[in-house]
């Protein structure tokens, strides 16, 4: 009887381990699927572009998708979504601004903006969630939410300006005006839109 009891306990432990493994596996699959969905969302937002008379780069909604990835998926999976987006574009999917694709875009005049997206999503997610673990973004205060996106914006434009200076051989002042200042009003609207989306999802959940 003792041996049977031990056998039963062992089976229970094995069963529990199997359940835990299955749950962990399901969570990873879910997160990968969500990252892929947000990668597609960022690509879709990139199609919404408008010419900027002060800059050679267009205004797109791409950054809005990056913000939402960091806020709603957290730093790890938000940055993973941006990485999937870049990988898809590099392989030829027309997901960059204006439907552009290919590795050439990733070394062109907008390269700095593109390569900065995983870093920006990671920074936004880390600030919003207070670390690497995913928490409830709907409970985050407005100041923290906006502050996170401001940090993300600074990172994106810092790398974007650097890329423009290298590729287009611009001076710092010219690159800042054409690569950042010209986009400030649009970025403010994207931050406001992201706040509205997060807050409206909280209301809908209630």
TrEMBL record:
The keyword Cell membrane applies. It comes from the Archaea. One of its GO terms (molecular function) is biotin transmembrane transporter activity. Keywords: Cell membrane, Membrane, Transmembrane, Transmembrane helix, Transport. Its main location: membrane. It is found in: Cell membrane. It is a multi-pass membrane protein. It holds the Pfam family BioY. The chain crosses the membrane at residues 32-50, 59-78, 84-106, 113-134, 146-168, 175-198. Belongs to the BioY family. This is Biotin transporter BioY. It comes from Halocatena marina.
């Amino acid at each position: 009887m003792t041996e049977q009891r031990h056998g039963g306990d062992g089976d229970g432990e094995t069963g529990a381990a199997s359940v835990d493994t299955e749950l962990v596996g399901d969570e990873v699959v879910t997160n990968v699927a969500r990252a892929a969905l947000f990668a597609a969302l960022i690509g879709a937002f990139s199609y919404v572009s408008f010419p900027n008379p002060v800059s050679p780069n267009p205004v797109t909604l791409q950054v809005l998708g990056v913000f939402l990835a960091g806020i709603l998926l957290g730093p790890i999976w938000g940055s993973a979504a941006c990485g999937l987006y870049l990988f898809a574009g590099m392989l030829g999917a027309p997901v960059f601004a204006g439907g552009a694709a290919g590795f050439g875009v990733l070394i062109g005049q907008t390269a700095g903006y593109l390569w900065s997206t995983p870093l920006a999503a990671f920074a936004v997610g880390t600030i919003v969630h207070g670390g690497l673990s995913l928490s409830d973004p709907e409970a985050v205060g407005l100041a923290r939410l906006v502050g996170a996106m401001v940090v993300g914006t600074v990172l994106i434009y810092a790398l974007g300006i650097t890329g423009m200076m290298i590729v287009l051989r611009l001076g710092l002042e010219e690159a800042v005006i054409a690569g950042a200042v010209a986009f400030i009003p649009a970025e403010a609207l994207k931050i406001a839109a992201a706040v509205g989306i997060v807050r409206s999802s909280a209301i809908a959940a209630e």
